[in-house]
Specification:
- This protein has helices at about 10-25, 40-45, 70-80, 90-115, 120-125, 135-150, 160-180, 190-200, 215-220, 220-225, 230-240; strands at about 5, 30, 55-60, 65.
- With about 250 residues, the protein is an alpha+beta fold.
- The chain has two domains: about 5-80, Glutaredoxin, CATH 3.40.30.10; about 85-240.
- The model has no long low-confidence stretch (mean pLDDT about 95).
- Bound molecules: glutathione.
- Glutathione (GSH) binds near residues 35, 55, 69 and 151.
């Protein structure tokens, strides 16, 4: 049974899963998922009408695997196992947890900026709805943003708290890679590197990720990008050296 990854090209969680799948040499096709709009069809496909759904979700012979960490761990088990060495499992999970805090905080800031940018809201719609049909579908983008705001509780969070959360993760990351020969743990490339690289997504998304220009601008935090320019250089080098593409 072929593997299908429900994902979004601009999503760091999807990128974490993609990176691990590519690294393990697993062939898969991607289906672009748009929050809210794609949900019903996706639920029918994966056979669950109740409960929360999230992307990335991998569908294949094993049944659905949701959550980027679980997908990556599964993929690594099919590959050479180097992303999750048994003796470092706990440390890797801890790094993933820390990096998730930066991503959740970054998503709040990015979604707020998208809400205030007409061109980014347009880019958030599936491609066929961005052209001549756009005037009819423009409200869908607002609905999508309202949906995510409610689902993830963005409204309650202050931007300062969110920035602080990102800073906390990145400062720890900076210290760790200095102390461990360029990797967060164990002096070699593991899933902790992928997590840390992805945690910079809402500071400055990696150039290889497909997203519209307006979306990219909304996902960029100029002040944090300046403050953590050294980590962005590290991240880009990490992509250069370790982001193998299967397709
Ligand atoms: N812990 C999950 C988090 C994934 C996640 O937050 N996905 C969001 C990305 S915005 C999502 O599915 N949003 C679409 C929706 O909730 O409908 C993972 O690592 O895969």
């Amino acid at each position: 049974m072929p593997y299908t990854l429900y994902s979004a090209s601009y999503s760091p969680w999807s990128e974490k899963a993609r990176w691990a799948l590519d690294r393990a040499g697993i062939a898969f096709t991607e289906v672009a998922y748009t929050p809210l709009l794609s949900e019903l069809a996706f639920r029918l496909k994966r056979g669950s009408l109740r409960g929360a759904v999230s992307i990335p979700t991998l569908l294949g012979a094993e049944g659905p695997i949701s959550d980027s960490l679980l997908i990556a761990r599964w993929a690594d088990g099919q590959g050479d196992g180097s992303l999750f060495p048994a003796e470092q499992m706990e440390a890797i999970e801890e790094w993933n947890y820390r990096c998730e805090a930066a991503l959740s905080a970054g998503r709040i800031l990015a979604t707020r900026r998208v809400a205030g940018s007409e061109p980014a809201r347009r880019e958030a719609l599936p491609a066929p709805l961005r052209g001549a049909l756009y005037p009819f579908f423009a409200p869908m983008a607002d609905l999508g943003i309202a949906f995510l705001t409610k689902k993830y509780g963005f409204a309650e969070a202050s931007s300062e708290t969110a920035e602080q959360a990102i800073r906390k993760t990145l400062e720890a990351g900076r210290l760790a890679i200095r102390g461990e020969g360029g990797h967060p743990i164990g002096g070699r490339f593991t899933f902790a590197d992928i997590a840390l690289a992805s945690s910079l997504h809402f500071v400055s998304p990696h150039a290889s990720l497909k997203m519209g220009e307006a979306t990219r601008a909304c996902f960029t935090h100029a002040a944090l990008a300046q403050e953590f320019a050294d980590l962005l250089v590290w991240r880009d080098a990490c992509y250069e050296a370790h982001r193998r593409r299967a397709r």
